[in-house]
Write a structure and sequence with these properties.
binds heme C; five-stranded antiparallel sheet; globular; alpha+beta
């Protein structure tokens, strides 16, 4: 291992300098993709690397480098003062683009393709795409009262922001499978103060409030990952914990609960479609991250907790994007002009960069970039949106003509009829994505301008910040610790 390694980013990001040799490595299985990965730590404290590796359910090996036979590529990035190079193992060419995106977008890192990804950076999600929310209606479980929907049934949206009826448990009425695929689960430690005694637990009024917060978490899809009794586990906080649930939250988590950090980016249904549960939304950004039937009560409880820790809103003032991190970064994305390879030709043919799309949008130029369902994925200003169904095959560039829905796809907007015709000389926003939160092209084109040239696979990818989808999240686990998402 040379003392200093230089790594050039594939898309002109500049050199990443690693100060080596590595202090050691961590080989693990990605909890998201199931792929084998290995991290080398440079200029890091051993303690940092050990903790990081434990969180990946593996063991740090001091002074050992990664030894990867089947290399898809490496991602080199720095996080605080730590420099990390992650090796992604495997032989799955269709995942090369995904890993590259995850590396560049989430980690702000440099992706270097290995032998198994050489020349392949097409972006496509061929399997296991983001599941769209489904509303499930079932009879109440034994011993519970009739539901509020037709025929006494209980209806629940299967989506991270969904909630069943107040007083019931989400997992009794909906499945966690798609919820977990939408968000990804990995265990994460609670705040250290949760290990300490808390005299407040002797106060019955206080305990009643904490117990009520538990009911709100259990009614929401949050139960899937934040309640050990019925969910798949509990990340950071556990509605079913014996001690004080509130002490498990980190400071940021509390601030999200109090609405001091806006969490609009996670998305929500309006309460009338979500069994009366409110959550932070563009209309009410400072509501809680936790879906609740009583926003004032939950905010008061979380604010009291922050006050107890001596914190004020000013302590979180810089955190514009709160815990929604990548979600909000995408929502805030402002497109530039399309490259020569992207746009809509005068005959309506739509072209995007190398990759296969599951979603194609044409929008007014100033439309907010679409992100997650249910309320942030068809922003005001959308003129046309077509979707590939979950079991369908994503479509190639130049196979879609504006206003004509290809066989096998569905028109998500407008609800019926043809979209407004494009006005010559006017600018519009083209958004083509391999999956939810996984853009291929997002740029401004002018209607009537000469046809863009065909895609050149070696061309620049200026418009792409890109991201890995859930599968490449583990690449950047170290970053995610600081920017929790819900
Ligand atoms: C599919 C799993 C999953 C679901 C569902 C989920 N979360 Fe999380 N959540 C996590 C994980 C994992 C973390 C740990 C940090 C990270 O990875 O971002 C987390 C962290 C958080 C945090 C930060 C906690 C802290 O103090 O650091 C908050 C707040 C949160 N989630 C709220 C929610 C709410 C509210 C819901 C329901 C609307 C929800 N989450 C649903 C997986 C999930």
């Amino acid at each position: 291992m040379t003392a200093l390694l230089f790594l050039l980013a594939a898309c002109g990001k500049g050199a990443t300098v690693l100060e080596g040799p590595p202090i050691g490595s961590c080989a693990y299985t990605s909890p998201f993709s199931g792929e084998l990965e290995c991290r080398e730590y440079y200029s890091a404290e051993v303690e940092y690397a050990e903790t990081d590796c434990v969180e990946l359910l593996s063991t740090f090996e001091p002074e050992v480098s990664c030894n990867v036979a089947e290399l898809m590529g490496t991602c080199t990035y720095s996080d605080d003062d730590v420099q990390i190079r992650t090796y992604v193992e495997g032989d799955a060419p269709d995942r090369c683009g995904t890993n590259k995106f995850g590396c560049e977008f989430f980690a702000n890192g440099a992706w270097e393709p290995g032998a198994n990804c050489e020349g392949n950076d097409e972006v496509a999600v061929l399997e296991n795409p983001f599941p769209q929310p489904v509303r499930v209606c079932v009879d109440p479980i034994d011993g519970e009262p009739a539901g509020q929907s037709e025929g006494g049934q209980v209806c629940t949206w299967e989506v991270v922001s969904g909630a069943t009826e107040d007083g019931r448990s989400f997992t009794d009425y909906a499945e966690c499978d798609s919820v977990i695929r939408q968000r990804g689960f990995s265990a994460a430690e609670p705040d250290a103060r949760s290990l300490e005694e808390d005299v407040r637990m002797g106060d019955t009024t206080y305990v009643a409030d904490v117990d009520w917060v538990r009911t709100q978490i259990r009614a929401g899809a949050c139960e899937c990952c934040h309640a050990s009794a019925k969910g798949v586990g509990a990340a950071v906080f556990d509605a079913d914990v014996d001690g004080n649930l509130m002490n498990q939250f980190h400071d940021n988590g509390l601030a999200m609960g109090a609405g001091w950090i806006p969490t609009v980016g996670f998305g929500t249904y309006p309460p009338e479609e979500n069994n009366g549960f409110w959550r932070s939304s563009p209309e009410n950004p400072n509501l809680s991250v936790i879906p609740t039937t009583d926003p004032d009560r939950i905010i008061a409880i979380f604010e009291a907790e922050l006050e107890h820790r001596g914190l004020t809103p000013a302590d979180f003032a810089g955190l514009t994007y709160g815990g929604a991190g990548p979600l909000d970064e995408q929502r805030a994305f402002v497109p530039d002009a399309c490259s020569e390879e992207e746009g809509v030709a005068p005959d309506g043919t739509i072209r995007w960069l190398p990759g296969r799309a599951r979603y194609v949008y044409v929008m007014e130029a100033d439309t907010i970039t679409p992100t997650v369902p249910p309320n942030l994925d068809t922003p005001d200003g959308t003129l046309w949106r077509i979707d590939v169904p979950e079991d369908g095959a994503p479509v190639f560039s130049e196979t879609v003509v504006y206003g004509q829905v290809p066989a096998g796809l569905t028109q998500a907007w407008p609800a019926s009829g043809a979209p407004e015709p494009l006005v010559e000389g006017r600018q519009y926003y083209l958004y083509a994505s391999a999956d939810v939160l996984f853009p291929i092209s997002r740029c401004l084109f002018t209607a009537g301008d000469p046809a863009p040239s065909s895609c050149d696979a070696t061309g620049g990818r200026g418009g792409i910040a890109g991201l890995a989808g859930i599968a490449a999240l583990a690449l950047v686990g170290a970053r995610r610790k600081r920017a929790p998402t819900a």
